[in-house]
Write a structure and sequence with these properties.
Strand order of the largest sheet: 10-11-14-17-18-19-20-21
Distance between the termini: 67 Å
Largest sheet: 8 strands, parallel, barrel
Radius of gyration: 28 Å
CATH superfamily of one domain: Immunoglobulins
Shape: elongated
Length: about 675
């Protein structure tokens, strides 16, 4: 049995959000859902309040304990079904160190003794039973007698639906939804391929748009979000949307990254069916859905996973491995088979039940490294003397192997902020098995470069060009995420130097560079129109800014960059191959003109990108290219449509053959001040 200290016991009495008493609110009632009628019944005694009933086989128990059961959501939690002509709910919960477990809810007036579950006699630690007359829509918790006699009321780790915060009970529910996205699912493979455009719009559902932007307690419903967000993402041209965690969480200020419901869309916006309908609508619009998923840590809320049965059930008992100093939260015990089965089942659940197209795994670095955010006295090396968490590494590999085996046309994406090798390489090659990895180095170097006054950029050109030195080590996604516009870092627009016009011009160049650099793209909501405030989860985006030509022009620029990315094969066909990129000219540091080419499978599709990152117009700039003599300007970041000057453009590009054997041509182009042009 795991040890428990006094601090741990005291934490169980409180909550990092708002702890509430049971019995002071009501849960909505709904009709009986269609349910599977199980035939396996064990010793049913109709005189008992809880019937002895099970859906587990011996093989299920074995796989659960060994960490190889990846569909636990079909067994644990609550299931509405019919037993001996009686409708009711089957409950199952894992509490291996409990001495008593009962189900409490409105159906029994929160009576802690009237509906006890029975523990299985196979040392699995599973408590289960069927309660007749309990249907969908009932609020409930598990009342647990645990270690040292501590008594706990816990939400159901496998519940599909929870009460809306600040209330903390689970709700009996099964998510049955009639999907209409057959066409998307059939064609999803090409949308998610590494050889296809992959442009992601990152969204926090609560604060993208609100019914009342001044009232943080009011939300749009999933249906209202769908009506507004789906056409917007479609208009902007993004191929995918990424939701910051939609899994149930007690505290708004955690942005969803401190979760308690690993199998439930948050009830803030509606029911699980409402959430499914939103995903369905995105798919019908041809847009993929990526979910942030957090297997790295969880909070200490009293109704959550922390010390679930009075002991360290889900988390490591050794706080050198089990506690996150950065986030004041607890780390899953990746060595424990039951926890591994729980986590992989969670990831699989979202792909299986909600047709998720990609899983972005949060804080991977903190999982991989035992010394993450710790000094020398706060961690212990692994058995080989290294700093890698061997159990977490094995878990991550199994996670990716399982997801790609069962859903080969999705993507898993790692937020891995260090130089951990082969993060996005297959496990059979020694990698972690992710499909992509966030390119944090590119993000930091690029922002550092563009923050500079243009006169100093000539001395920092290596910061700009360094990304291609290691780009092909991984399958990289270029992220300009929510983390870059919070906590005093300033919005994207105000990271840029100069007066108002220069700030917008610089940001248009940065986005042009991002969309023409190899790799997938990710842009956080509000960045697309140049928000002037940092992101605040309590309010909505500054939609009123779009009445200004400067912000409307920025939005249109991003829209056109998405269009360019999707229409130019050279920008995506070989975006993860060395042959898809070429530096053309980096020899004009003093003028800060940078030129590179992108190559498609066909030479005729090649494009040339020229960035002039100083506020100086350059006429008749000479560029030497090989292979083709005829070029046309297909994008200019200084366009009047984008709130640029529109004064410097290239209606016709002059070309001169200078070396016939090598097919070398000299082009003369006009470069706008603080502008980027793309030639085809």
């Amino acid at each position: 049995m795991s040890s428990t200290n006094d601090k741990d016991l005291s934490l169980l009495q409180g909550s990092s959000s708002q702890n509430t008493k049971e019995g002071d609110r009501s849960a909505s009632k709904v009709g009986k859902p269609a349910a599977k009628k199980y035939e396996e019944i064990h010793f049913v005694d109709k005189q008992q309040s809880v019937w002895n009933y099970s859906v587990f086989t011996d093989e299920d128990i074995k796989n659960f304990q060994q960490g190889t059961h990846y569909t636990l959501y079909k067994f644990f939690g609550n299931k509405q079904l019919q037993v001996l002509d009686e409708w009711g709910t089957y409950f199952a919960v894992w509490a291996p160190n409990a001495t008593f477990v009962s189900v409490v809810g409105y159906f029994n007036e929160w009576n802690k003794t009237s509906h006890p579950l029975k523990v299985r006699q196979d040392n699995s630690g599973i408590w289960e039973g069927f309660i007749p007359g309990v249907h969908a829509g009932e609020a409930y918790k598990y009342h647990i007698h645990g270690y040292m006699g501590i008594k706990l009321d816990k939400g159901d780790p496998f519940a599909h639906y929870w009460e809306k915060r600040p209330f903390t009970a689970s709700i009996t529910w099964q998510t049955n939804f009639e999907w209409k996205d057959e066409k998307w699912m059939k064609e999803r493979k090409k949308h998610n391929a590494l050889t296809s455009p992959y442009s992601v719009y990152e969204v926090h559902l609560a604060s993208w748009m609100r019914p009342d932007k001044h009232d943080e307690e009011v939300y749009n419903t999933y249906q209202q979000i769908t009506e507004r967000l789906v056409p917007y993402v479609k208009e902007m041209g993004f191929t995918h949307v990424e939701f910051m965690p939609v899994m149930e969480h007690p505290f708004d200020g955690s942005w969803g990254y401190q979760g308690t419901g690993y199998f439930a869309p948050t009830s803030r916006f509606g029911s699980p069916q409402d959430y499914a309908a939103m995903v369905d609508a995105f798919h019908e619009a041809g847009i993929g859905v990526i979910l942030d998923w957090v297997p790295s840590h969880f909070p200490y809320d009293a109704h959550g996973l922390f010390m679930f049965d009075g002991t360290h059930t889900y988390e490591y008992a050794d706080m050198r491995k089990g506690y996150h100093p950065d986030w004041n939260s607890y780390i899953f015990n990746y060595k424990r088979g039951e926890v591994k089965s729980f986590l992989i089942s969670s990831a699989r659940f979202w792909c299986d039940q909600f047709h998720t197209d990609g899983i972005r795994v949060d804080a991977v670095s903190s999982m991989l490294r035992l010394d993450y955010s710790r000094n020398a006295s706060q961690w212990e090396p692994n058995e080989y003397g290294g700093n890698g968490n061997l159990e977490a590494i094995a878990f991550i590999k199994d996670l990716n192997e399982t997801l790609y085996r069962d859903f080969p046309d999705i993507q898993t994406i790692a937020e891995e902020s260090t130089d951990w090798p082969q993060t996005s390489k297959p496990t059979f090659e020694g990698g972690l098995g992710f499909g992509m990895k966030w390119m944090m180095g590119w993000m930091h170097d690029t922002l550092d470069y563009f923050k500079l006054d243009p006169i100093f950029r000539q001395f920092q050109q290596d910061k700009f060009s360094f990304s291609m030195m290691y780009f092909y080590d991984e399958n990289f996604m270029l992220p300009l995420s929510h983390d870059e516009v919070v906590h005093g870092k300033s919005p994207m627009l105000y990271k840029m130097p100069g007066d108002e016009w220069q700030k917008f011009a610089n940001l248009r160049i940065l986005y042009t560079y991002m969309f023409t650099h190899p790799g997938a793209k990710l842009l956080f909501m509000g960045d697309e129109f140049g928000a002037t405030n940092e992101w605040n989860y309590k309010s909505e985006l500054q939609w009123e800014l779009l009445q200004h030509p400067s912000h409307g022009g920025m939005k249109f620029c991003v829209q056109k960059l998405n269009e360019l990315y999707k229409s130019e094969p050279a920008l995506y066909e070989k975006q993860f191959e060395p042959g898809g990129f070429e530096w053309v000219d980096l020899n004009h540091r003093s003028e800060s003109v940078l030129i590179y080419g992108r190559k498609g499978k066909k030479e005729k599709d090649d494009v040339l990108i020229i960035l002039n990152v100083t506020p100086v117009v350059r006429h008749d700039w000479e560029v030497y290219v090989h292979g083709k003599g005829k070029w046309a300007e297909v994008f200019n970041s200084d366009s009047k449509e984008f709130w640029g000057t529109g004064d410097v453009y290239n209606p016709e590009i002059r070309s001169e053959l200078v070396d016939k054997p090598s097919k070398c041509y000299k082009l003369k182009v006009n470069l706008p001040a603080l502008g980027a042009i793309v030639l085809r």
